[in-house]
Amino acid sequence: MKLDLNKNSPSAATQSLTELFLSFDGRVSRSTYWLRYMLPYFLIYVVLAVLDISLGSFDYDTGYGTTSGLFTLVGIIPSLAMNIKRCHDRNRTGWFLLVGLIPVIGLWPLIELWFLKGTDGSNPYGADPLS
Questions:
Q1: What is the C-alpha to C-alpha distance for residues 88 and 29, in angstroms, rounded to an integer?
Q2: Which stretches within the chain are classed as H helix?
Q3: 126: β partners
Q4: SS3 119
Q5: How far is the C-alpha of 105 from the C-alpha of 19, rounded, in Å?
Q6: Separation of alpha carbons 59 and 53, rounded Å
Q7: In whole angstroms, what is the distance from residue 94 CA to residue 23 CA?
Q8: If you ran DSSP here, which 8-state letter would residue 34 be given?
Q9: Measured CA distances, 45 to 33, 59, 68 (Å)
């Protein structure tokens, strides 16, 4: 299936969001990762957590309530997709995320994916998202 990249197409924005959040292929830059995924995800979670607190359904021990917990469950696939694309941008396989499960050493994927620039030019996972 080929995406319609015509900016005037009404479905172009929807397809690009679908491709961005539900596809595990390709690369994503740090700016796209932070501005189109991390920041909105965090803001939506905070709003839902405040809603849970006001409804009395927030559990302070777990950090989740009814709506914020459902949002987190729905966000598992987009989270995996975006993090795998950041791995691809760093010229690593998506399996690199499993390093995060190792105590102490597990901080390295966070540092690498959140703060380090992707590889310049094309790599086996696709074209440079900044070009």
A1: 10
A2: 12-22, 30-32, 39-55, 66-74, 76-89, 107-115
A3: 123
A4: coil
A5: 31
A6: 8
A7: 12
A8: I
A9: 16, 14, 6
- Express each pLDDT in 40-91 by its tens digit: 999 999 999 999 999 999 999 988 999 999 999 999 999 999 999 999 999 9
The residue written with tokens 């102490």 in the block is 104
Q: What is the Cα–Cα distance from 36 to 82, expressed in whole angstroms?
A: 10
Structure tokens at 57: 């359904």
Secondary element (H or E) of residue 106: none
59 φ, ψ to 5°?
Answer: -105, 110
What pLDDT does residue 2 have?
44
């696709």: which residue's tokens? 126
Model-level pTM? 0.83
Every domain of the chain and the residues it spans = 26-115
CA dist 95 and 85 (Å) reads 11
Measured between its terminal Cα atoms, the distance across the chain in Å is 23
**Side-chain-side CA neighbours of residue 125 (13 Å):** 23
Cβ atoms 117, 32 nearer than 8 A: no
